[in-house]
Amino acid sequence: MIIPRPRRMTTAGGSVAFREDLLRLMPDDPSLHEEGYRIDVSPAGIELTAGGPAGRFYGARTLSQLGPAVPYGTIEDRPRFAWRGVMLDVARHFMPKTFVLRLVDLLAEHKLNVLHLHLTDDQGWRLEIKRHPRLTEVGAERGGFYTHEDVREIVAYAAERFVTVVPEIEMPGHAQAAIAAYPHLGNDPSREIPVWSEWGVSEHVLNLEESTIRFCQDVLDEVVELFPSTYVHVGGDECPVTEWERSPAARRRLAELGLRRPQDACAWFIGRMAGHLAEHSRRLVCWDEPDRDPTPGTTVMIWRDERADRGDNEVILAPHTRTYFDYRPSAGPFGGRPAADPGGTTVRDRVLTLADTYAFTPDRTARGVQCQLWTEYMPTPELVEFMALPRMCAFAEVAWGSPGDYPDFLRRLDPHLARLGAMGVRTGPLIP
Ligand code: ACM
């Protein structure tokens, strides 16, 4: 077994050459987890028993990863975390649909089951919203966007591979592309601002008017029609309050709403979206922020630290120290990229090694874990794939919940990378 390591594996010596006709699919066994499976290999053949359709899919993946010689014995496996995610930022640099589908295949190969698409940000709006067409007419002027038809294709392709696509629409910060499209969403409607062409956190944020809340809810109405996922992400991170402090209209709204500090307006905004999504039987996810208590009943995606203690709120762990794959995999030069980039224009200076990711030991109380592909410094699909792998392989073992010792992982990684290479996957350099 290469990736991930099974929870239980007994071998009896000897092996059988894998042939389709030796494989017998047994009736599902409800005592196995719905994503779990058991493989029994004997001279008589190979039996695959699963807890459900996803388990059958993962069992088949494992068989394909075992290679041509399947050892006699029993493999029993199931994932530790229900949410095993990968986030792709298509806002900073748009990624074509063909690459999104290819990434879904890579998730499936690694038994990961959530593709979180970061669809909007200061630098771009990448989802067609029929009720508000300027969002893409203006907001996607650099790069492109996904039509409803594209999204339906991506969602269906992912579902066939037991991957759920979770959309993210950022608010109330990281929303400059939306404000560029519709200035009345901003705090100074008399002023036209462009879709942002720099990286960082823009000061321009949504205003607090009821009409803006309704606009965002309209957008979410269209989002939930397109994405069947129970979870809908609304961002909520890094929302500067300078405009709310300065704007007389925002100050009036704060007083009207009984909000003491402008900082409290972000929580209020998110609470309004959570209520709206609940009416659609959906659950809100947002990034964790230190100056904001999580809204009850929402899911918090933790990125600044590795702790899972957020009261009663469900938690997804996405700590930058373990899971931000836009960070460089080595302090030295790698794959033709420079060791240092004083201008900070082509590569992040933070380092996150393969070993750092493999050493991630997520709190078991979390619902899940997720790795991130932010694309400020990854303009092409080729580069995203190159930066994602092999760290995504280490992450997959963490997410499945059975990492072993690191040298053993490296030994198993070797044939796995050869197999990915044979599939045409562009893996980055192995920098252990
Ligand atoms: C984040 O990295 N701002 C979630």
UniProtKB/TrEMBL annotation:
GO terms for cellular component: membrane
One GO MF term: beta-N-acetylhexosaminidase activity
Coiled-coil intervals, chain numbering: none
EC number, as in UniProt: 3.2.1.52
Domain Beta-hexosaminidase bacterial type N-terminal: 28-77
Gene Ontology biological process terms in this record: carbohydrate metabolic process; glycosaminoglycan metabolic process
Glycoside hydrolase family 20 catalytic domain: residues covered: 81-401
Residues annotated as the enzyme's active site: 238 (proton donor)
Domain of life: Bacteria
The keyword Flavoprotein belongs to this UniProt entry's keyword annotation: no
Reactions accelerated catalytically: Hydrolysis of terminal non-reducing N-acetyl-D-hexosamine residues in N-acetyl-beta-D-hexosaminides
Keywords: Glycosidase, Hydrolase
Class in the EC hierarchy, top level: hydrolase
Family: Belongs to the glycosyl hydrolase 20 family.
PANTHER family, sorted: BETA-HEXOSAMINIDASE (PTHR22600), BETA-N-ACETYLHEXOSAMINIDASE (PTHR22600:SF57)
Protein name in the entry: beta-N-acetylhexosaminidase
